[in-house]
Amino acid sequence: MGAGCACHIPDRAMGRTRATGGRQHFQPDTILIHESGCAHIPGACGHLSESDIAPPTWGWIINPAAGLWGQISKELPAAATHGNTALKATRRCGSCMGTLG
Hints:
This protein has a domain at 31-100. It has two helices and seven strands; from the N terminus they run E-E-E-H-E-E-E-E-H.
């Protein structure tokens, strides 16, 4: 399991800073959504590798509305707009929250 959430993510460092070899690179404001309903921020937690983020296990929100990250809850889920668009985040990763302050 990943640190701070229930996502099963390999323990690899994030290393990449730009798109290479056709792999997806996420901007820092993107909200990543795991199939478990847990939201993450790229680069905010050490247990997440962008190379592992792909549908159907993941969806994401590019250019989310201001304040959306802080509103994510069971009452106000955030729906993925890219990747697996059937996914909704109902909670935020504890590691990402700690990094963002």
